[in-house]
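Problem 3 from the worked examples.
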Amino acid sequence: MDELKKLCKKYDELQSLHGSKELNSIYFGGCINEPDICFVFMNPTKRNIASSKDWKGIRSPWIGTKNSWDLFYKLKLIEDSLYDKIKSIKGTDWTEEFAKEVYESIEKNKIFITNLAKCTQLDARELPNSVFENYLELFYKEMDIIKPKTIILFGNQVSSIILKEKISVSQNRKKEFILNNKYKCYSVYYPVGNGRFNMDKSIEDIKYIMKEYYGKNI
């Protein structure tokens, strides 16, 4: 845990360079000890209410949002009661206690959720590769600390930067890559925001991976 705290300090330093200065960086959440799957998204925005300077709870992805949790619910990685509450309350009604409860459910299911870049933006602007690349070595350290069994990379940009080769998700569905001679990786369609229309394809591929490696037939 001390090693992860050191990484968080580095992420905070990069927030001042690449993110909005009135917002906090967002870290990660879930199982930090050899999770079955690590989900890697792009970067957070102010819609995550944990980025507020007033927030004192965990600073994990997607806190205070709705649509992203559809993915985890359809994969049976979050409890029905928590999902129902997420969908019924306003994002600003998330409490620090509720965020902790949601991520305890994620942890119980051996899942880790993170972004490649932790710099919170005011909106969903497209970031240049150079910003993500500034987080790359820290991301590799993050993976070496938690040691995930499988890594799901969402979208072409994240996949290409992490794997250091040009990746098109449409041409590499259900294809296994090996990251740094250590970790099984899959490139999957980005399932939220502008990529929401691809969520069904993302779910199809993730279900395949979960059944292939963990015998979970969802």
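Problem 4, a separate protein:
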Amino acid sequence: MDLPLIDGAVARDWLDRAEARQGARALGKPAAAPLEGTAELAGLAAVAAKFLAVGTPRTLGLIGARELGPALVATQRAYAVPRELRIFDGDPVAAARLAEAVGGRVVSLTEACACDIVVARGPVAIERAWVRNGTLVTALDDGVVLAPALLAAAHVYTVGVVPGVTATATLGAVAAGLVDGRVLDEITILMIRPE
């Protein structure tokens, strides 16, 4: 089965709608219904890149993305155009398939974590030593286990409720302009949980 490519205009719409929805919720205004599954996750990951990533992200690491990969790449490209796509998956066949579909290359988990933007879906565990300062890590589900040292070193933002995590702010508060996003070269993390 081929992975579908996502039209750039469609991806931009997902980014814009996810941003508007998060901002409206943070301001206590009526928010549009969430997008469907893949579109919502891809849109949220792109909103995170817009506000929480370094100014000119050059590298994008996808971990465990599989069928979400083309949507994630398309929405990231709606905001910025990373020059290098690094793909890791515990299943080498799935990694190769996604790399071929999006024009990336298959790498180790540590190489995928050494990017400006890392978007991960579980099951996977990410250690502090693998993530450099300035990186944005977007954890799409609770199968992404972030080492305590990584969480302690980062500014953590959330979508939904993440038990046991002290967040800097919600992504919506950043999108609405209520709080600043990235400031310097800190590690930023977005943890997404169903709302």
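Solution to problem 4. The first helix runs from residue 8 to 26. The chain has a mean pLDDT of 93.
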